[in-house]
Amino acid sequence: MNQAPTVDGTLEPDEIEHSMKRIAVASVIGTTVEWYDLFVFATASALVFNKVFFPGFVPLIGTLLAFGTFASAYLARIVGAALFGHFGDRLGRKSMLLVSLLIMGVATFCIGLLPDYASIGIWAPLLLLTLRIVQGLALGGEWGGAVLMAVEHAPANKRGLYGSWVQIGVPAGTLIANLVFLLSNAVLPDGALLAWGWRIPFLVSVMLVGVGLYVRLNTSETPSFRKIRSARAQVKVPLAELLGKRWKQVVLGGIATMSTGTSFNLIVAFGLTYGTQTLGFSRNAMLSIALMACALCIVMLPVFGRLSDRVGRKPVIVGGIIGEALLAFPLFWLLDTREYAFALLGYLLMMTAFAANYGPIATFLAELFDAQVRYSGLSVSYMLSGLLGSAATPIVTTALLSATGKGASVAWFMVGSAAISAAALLLLAQTLRRGRGAAIPPSF
Question: pTM for the whole thing?
């Protein structure tokens, strides 16, 4: 049931507390579905797509081509962020969330129906690429809207906490994707996963989409947008306003967030390939390690989000970035032991650092922009970070491993990404209102 706003477009304090749990659950479910759809593709790219859609290449090159298809969506995400951001700032957050979720669900389901290379030749990877781009367009509009549904509804002293709930969708979606692949691999006969079993995770996503649509239909528009709409204060072309006056926040915000994509994809995409193809771990072993790391992340994200409400966004995020840099080499040292327990420890440590970085970043980015352009600013900035970090990581790390044969080269890549993100973050204003120097936009 939607909550009725007061005459100034806001909710009463008791109504806010009552509705926030429902809004948080809606945000988590919706983003979990979207990120499940995204990362089931990443998992399939690491495990089967090199054989199903690129069978004429040696394994490492086939994997590189599969990851190239995986990365193609990140360009589409920028376009999707601008498109959905425009209408999200003009028409509202809620409607764009419903549209993006539906588009993502259809594209993912269709991937599960694609013929393989043996059946239709070059058309198979081309159709895969097309559907991957459609996924990217949908996700470009999804994440920013989900963040705003949580952050713009939240009390000022709990924005970090509720913004971090949206971030749970990333490890939760990844966990479910890995779990589905793990179960499929465990129960199917040898060769069945490559023959048809890989389709199951894509086809079952239709059930998750149905749940996500139902939950989101029962949430209300945010107070911030209701104020803008009642005052007829929408910006005519939000993207033009954004790039004309706030391009520095967009660019620096994207670079500051880059290391989150690098570290997470190092674990869930490259790590699976490195563990199975280079170190000799079984597919089930690496999937179970990734699953447990994601479970830990789900627990830690709200912890760091709440901490950012108390001490500020920047200190927590910087701590996470430093942790990612310091753990880059130990991660590979532990993996290279080829011992399951040590590999798991490396994953858990890196995922904790990632959670400190990623938990508060959604609220941090949202607080950089005025409400009139917040959907566009938040979405474009975050999707830029995906292009710089997430898209490049599987390709660069696979190429580095091919050239050097050593995980140390990949560790240096993680350290460099963290250093660049830290520098950009330090150039941005602290967004948590803490006495002097507050930088939260007055229209929040």
Answer: 0.82
